[in-house]
Amino acid sequence: LKVQWQYAIVLSLVHVVALFAFVGWFFTWSGLIIGIAGHFVFGMLGITIGYHRLLTHRGFSCPVWLERSLAVLGMCNLQDSPARWVAIHRMHHQHSDKQPDPHSPLVSFLWGHVGWVVCRHQELDTTRHYERYVRDLLRDPFYLQLERRQGWFFVFVAHAVVLSGLGAAFGYFVSGGIGDEAIRYAASWAIWGVAVRTVFVLHGTWSVNSLAHLFGYRNYETRDESTNNWLVALLSHGEGWHNNHHAEPRSAAHGHRWWEYDMSWWVIRSWEMVGLAKNVVRPKCMHPRESN
């Protein structure tokens, strides 16, 4: 194992910046709204639907422009490149809660939540090791290019700059000129719309790896310790119905019971209705305690 200092430093920095949300001068209602909207736009569309249900499990297909747009939104959450994210998640499903699992919380809660991100086997960061899990993605020059020179990270930086600039422009129109208000709005959108939202999405995703393998109930007797956790499902737009997901990984719907609300599924379903999503995979086993 080796500490990945570039991850540790950047993740620590974004958490520190998010703490400025407790300073009243940086609060604006528009910044808060942008942060909440970003949780759905970047978190749900980018990570939950894009990185996970589309790129990792191919739970549905869609036009290339939409797939790449979702991948770009996913990169705006500081969760690695699409190929590396997909490779690690596919490893997780292959070895779930076993020794080769990259982030099993059975090692410890902290390890499953964030420890594996900042302190992991060096081979996980070499394309040669994980490319066999994502040959389908790396055949596409778009995804291959993102692996070179940390291209995905510059997408994150670019979106932060754009949001801050839009905040400054909004502040300019609200205050009627360039001055302290424009600077305050730019800072507010950067803190609430980028840092706070990124931290919230990060911990929502990490909670699937940690909490949803330790606490909750099980509909299916899978070969791992996955559980359904309503709090994680709420924070991550349906990803917390994790035992259901491990029972049928390719299914685009994670909620299997009527009360297991899965907002991401309804977005995919709406795309299917208008022809944007095709070959949508639905769950086959809907009965509790069914074997994997």
Write the layout of secondary structure elements.
Blueprint: E1 2-3, H1 5-18, H2 29-56, H3 64-75, H4 82-94, H5 109-118, E2 119-120, H6 127-130, H7 135-138, H8 141-146, H9 151-175, H10 180-209, E3 220-221, H11 230-235, H12 242-247, H13 263-273, E4 290-291
Parallel strand pairs: 3-4
Antiparallel strand pairs: 1-2
Helix pairs in contact: 1-10, 2-3, 2-4, 2-10, 9-10
Structure in words:
The structure is a single chain. By secondary structure, this protein is mainly α. 58% of the residues lie in helices and 3% in strands. The protein has 13 helices and four strands. It has helices at 5-18, 29-56, 64-75, 82-94, 109-118, 127-130, 135-138, 141-146, 151-175, 180-209, 230-235, 242-247, 263-273; strands at 2-3, 119-120, 220-221, 290-291. The strands form two sheets. A two-stranded antiparallel sheet has the order 1-2. Helix 2 crosses helix 4 (82-94) and helix 9 runs antiparallel to helix 10 (180-209). The chain is globular. Residues 288-292 have low confidence and may be disordered.
Short description:
This protein is an all-alpha fold. The protein is about 60% helix and about 5% strand.
Identify the strand order in the major beta sheet: 1-2
How far apart lie the N and C ends?
32 Å
Characterize the largest beta sheet: strand count, sense, and whether it forms a barrel.
2 strands, antiparallel
Task: Give the overall form.
Answer: globular
Number of helices: 13
In sequence order, what are the helices and strands, one letter per element? EHHHHHEHHHHHEHHHE
Number of strands: 4
Which spans have pLDDT < 50 for at least 5 consecutive residues?
288-292
- Helix fraction by DSSP (H/I, runs of at least 4): 55-70%
Radius of gyration: 19 Å
